[in-house]
Amino acid sequence: MRWSETFIPTLREMPAEAETISHQLLLRAGYIRQVAAGIYSYLPLAQRSVLKISQIIREEMNRIGGQEFFLPVLHPRELWEESGRWEIMGDNMFRLKDRAGRDMCLGMTHEEVITDIARHELRSYKQLPQTWYQIQTKFRDEARPKGGLLRVRQFTMKDAYSFHTSWESLDETYQQQYRAYSRIYDRCGLRYIAVKADTGAMGGKDSHEFSALIDVGEDLIVHCEHCGYGANREMAISRAPVVDDQPAPDRPEKFPTPGIRTIAALETFPGGAEAHRQIKTLVYMVDEQPVLVCVRGDHTVNEAALARLFGAEARFYPAHPGQIVAAMGANAGSLGPVGVSGLRIVVDEALRGRKNMTTGANEDDFHIRGVVVDRDFKGEYQQVRLVEEGDFCINCGKPIRMWKGLEVGQIFKLGVRYSQTMKATVLNEKGEAVPMIMGCYGIGVERILAAAIEQNHDENGMILPVSIAPFSVIVNVVNMGDPESVRAAERITTALEAAGIDVLLDDRDERPGVKFKDNDLIGIPLRVTLGPKKLKEGKAEIYIRAKRESVDVALDEVAARVQAALESSTPQTKE
Fold first, then answer.
1. Which long-range contacts (CB under 8 A, 24 or more apart) does 55-60 make?
2. pLDDT higher at 358 or 223
3. Domain coverage including residue 372
4. Do 339 and 270 belong to one domain?
5. 271 Cβ partners below 8 Å, 6+ apart?
6. Are residues 193 and 130 in the same domain?
7. Do 428 and 519 sit in the same domain of this protein?
């Protein structure tokens, strides 16, 4: 393909609206253009990369027996009401009415549609297991779309679904998907971590999230480099550093704290206490009943952990001021577990064994010091705090690390979450109707591209992995007015194309500096440069973008050397 015939609208200036490196470079390199907030047009270079990523995904899904579908984007309300998610999805769902006034939505995901097919077409355990997938457009009305392709309202997802009659069968397919995902990200050249994840609105039993490690990632990934433990922060548990407490008095003491309503204010108040020596007490309404949650003053409650503790069906939320006063007799900022009766009290594990602590007295403008956990109040111990830097691995006790990550895929063991509510059953060996056990597996296609750019760039532009770059090689003619250079470029381009290599011939009549800047900007892994000076020696220059290394090669060896360089640069998979 010739650059002169290809639409590549590069920009010299940095777009003012671009927040992240990938957003800046995708715009500057002529990959995308914004239509509206979180909605982008993919121009030819982006589309070529997206199609290459999709093909890698397709090959790995087919390799493990996946069967490709193409499901509708437009869904009727009734299917989502059957699963119970029409209300749960809230404002994230695009909703509309057809001309007959029927409620419809744009698909955020396709559990309902795929389960509807399964319940009408699958009859017997003999037909299972089945693994179905698609690569399809999804819509989510993000409240704050940002970062170019990192958080958008329209995107491409590979979503797969599996159907089973036993958990053992699901476990086997789940592991196949896990390994396939690892191969996909390896082939795309990503640096990533796979960790335990929260199932969230998807529901189900277990989940793993695949996160690309990037500085602008929205997730925090907890990882132990010693034993391999890993989880996103919402799922992670850890051991807090041990705190040496001072001896406690025989009984707690109430003392006045006028106007003190925060942990920080109590730290500096005379007779107060450091944050890690305070008990922070919060009130949550769980199915309209107040529950106390106690954590260390310098820790943060993990509401995802509370959701798992209270149960998927429970409705819970932070109590309103009036509800707090009704339950505790005081306002937020003066609350504590001492003397409380008749309420469920959840105590974070980091408070176990602590003594000489300070907490609210359940009376405005008063606190209590000298509190000993388990002596002065009792509750059920759970880890309900967010993991912090400086914590230790729950498995091996070594220090854990926290990384910023971008979720590029997630897999779920859904179990019977959808098949029960939607009555998707098959007959088992005994002739009994049983709900199918399901798995669900999603990959964000454009997020792979954006993450690859975040991980692979320099001050000049993108440095895309060979496997997902729009072209593998760019052939640059330094002087289009030199017929010998043009003929040599044409011969090399033809030879590379004959070898099955994607080639872009930069045949523009531009200054060499302009062409080299554009070549670097758009992220092509290899450049072959043909100029009159080297041609007199019968040579061309091969430039490897990632290494910033160049070598002069005889013209008749260029095709072979390029092929070898591409093979050595192609990301390898770890089985």
1. 56/184, 56/187, 56/188, 56/467, 56/468, 57/135, 57/158, 57/184, 57/443, 57/445, 58/135, 60/180, 60/181, 60/183, 60/184, 60/187
2. 358
3. 253-382
4. yes
5. 255, 369
6. yes
7. no
Question: What is the secondary structure of 446-463 as a DSSP string?
Answer: HHHHHHHHHHSEETTEE-
- Cβ neighbours, 10 Å, residue 572: 8
CA distance 65 to 67: 6
Q: Tell whether 231 and 259 lie within a shared domain.
A: no
- Mean pLDDT, rounded, for 286-293: 96
Coil vs helix vs strand at 506? strand
Same domain, 233 and 260: no
Do 223 and 336 lie in a common domain? no
CATH number, domain with residue 78: 3.30.930.10
Per the prediction, the chain carries an average pLDDT of 94
* DSSP per residue, 373-434: BTTTB--EEE--B---TT-EETTT-PBPEEEEEEEEEEEEEEETHHHHHTT-EEE-TTS-EE
* CA 183, 185, 190, 195 torsion-angle sign: negative
**Structural domains counted in the chain:** 3
**Phi and psi torsions of 133, nearest 5°:** -145, 165
Residue 33, helix vs strand vs coil: strand
Q: CATH code at 348?
A: 3.90.960.10
CA distance 363 to 41: 58
Question: Region 229-241: what's the mean pLDDT?
Answer: 90
pTM assigned to the model = 0.87
95 CB burial (10 A radius; 0-12, 13-18, 19+): middle
